[in-house]
User: What shape does this take?
Amino acid sequence: MQIKLVLEYDGTNYCGWQLQNGQDSIQARIEAALELIFAAPVRLYAAGRTDAGVHARGQVATLRPPRPFDAGELKRALNATLPYDIVVLDGAEVSDNFDPRRDARLRVYEYRVLNRTTRSAFEHRFAWLVRDQLDLDTLNDAAQEFIGEHDFAAFRSLGTEVKSTVRRVDVSQWRREGETLTYRIEATGFLRHQVRTMVGAMIEAGRHKLTPADVGALLASRDRARAPAAVPPSGLFLVEVRY
Amino acid sequence: MQIKLVLEYDGTNYCGWQLQNGQDSIQARIEAALELIFAAPVRLYAAGRTDAGVHARGQVATLRPPRPFDAGELKRALNATLPYDIVVLDGAEVSDNFDPRRDARLRVYEYRVLNRTTRSAFEHRFAWLVRDQLDLDTLNDAAQEFIGEHDFAAFRSLGTEVKSTVRRVDVSQWRREGETLTYRIEATGFLRHQVRTMVGAMIEAGRHKLTPADVGALLASRDRARAPAAVPPSGLFLVEVRY
Assistant: This one.
């Protein structure tokens, strides 16, 4: 028997999804709650890791309960046990063959930028503050450069080994709601730090320090040394994983 | 010389606006920052007190600086000194006669209800979770009962002395954005716990446990003993004070 959980978490207080010795991770908290419920160790497998400070509105993780257990009941038991910043949105039984990472067709991330001159008492955990006025049209022109299948080597994290750095981007778009600019990207997969480095490049375009064509040239160069630094994790949300 | 500040704060970690012996208040934090800046004690006067856990998007407070000081410069100095959950949105010089409490024409509050079955990793500080499905039309029918000039004695906090419990309500309306229901009220002034007790009554109507007419009858009764308990402070925001 396998159960699939859909998870929401505020990543601010955690070292990221993955277990790390001596640090507080989302995975460790949920596995500890599962161990309380089942009185036995239970291992979680996620659709993807999220880094320290990164949030999720729809992370997916699976487990094999040590004894038969109703998925809805497990959702309720976990929400009664987990800390306030980790929530199970949904629990459902899935086929034993289901693999949350391999079977994912599309992953959706959003990055939130608070574009105003003064810091915010409410958004400091959930957005990156950019004081310079950003131009939405230019941001979207730059975002267009990423649509389609590309080698994203220029936007990968240094020191990470991956088989291929080619990914397909279906949606890459900015929207404005009041003082908040939100970037949405839907892609087959992501390299580590990819979204945050792409956002860094697009924000340079939004500030008119790069042109959208420069962002396209950066992508085409496949040269990590030319890309801007990754922007802070606080603005990044794993929104959805589609199967 | 008098300076008017417009303030935003997350009230979660504070005992409220007002100084209280041995407790951490918004006023104490800003006065401590002012004392650092001016190397002299400075007293703040607010448009109104907010209770423990209540937030503000537009609280107004005034001070008389011990020496001439540019209001924009003071805003920047305070934002560099204050903790992350208290922000000065605006600073402006005002006439010496200006009184932030007495001169206020209208105060605007909003109350946020998260209406879903599962708790939220992001909204637990900023909304009250109501799991029962709420009916927006019924909430608005109940909200209509408060429009106009009324004696709000039924919705006052027990043990508070005030000269008059009559207030005029200009706007009283609910709106839905996704899973969030937000109540907005604009009135000449408010009694302590008034908004939270009114919201408690309207939510009973939204659950169909009271009718909108029952809420009107409760208001007309002026009997505090008949009103529901105040709802939690986490959902309440002082949005604006108009002069």
Q: What stands out?
A: The two ends of chain A are 19 Å apart (CA to CA). Chain A has a mean pLDDT of 95. DSSP finds five helices and ten strands in chain A.
